[in-house]
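Hey, quick one: can you model this chain's 3D structure?
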Amino acid sequence: MSGAAALPSTQAADESANIWGGEHVEMDVTPTGANFDFDCAMGTIDQPLALPADGKFRAAGTYTRERPGPVKGNGSAAAAATYFGTIKGESMHLEVVLVNNKETVGTFDLVRGRSGHVMKCR
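Sure thing. Here's the predicted structure for all 122 residues.
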């Protein structure tokens, strides 16, 4: 994709550049995609992230709901999800949509270099 730049990853000198955080979400950018912590859920983007000149991206990944307390077996199964993002400067607007039923599980505003405010169900 011409004009695309990769989002910062763990190869960056300043590790805080890899973290994007906001209310109910934290995103850790890696060389192979990203890992997410949400309130009572977790997620992944399973491909390296590239940022087109317009700041918008769309990436395939997973979204896994978590439950409080002990879980029998393997727990919740990961659902296929699409992550839609728009980055302007140090801010990102993110929407997470499940592939199967087109359910929007959340929209989030994140800031680069900030930890997220996440309440885990465990």
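One thing worth noting: Strands lie at 5-6, 19-22, 25-30, 33-38, 41-45, 50-51, 56-65, 79-88, 91-98, 104-112.
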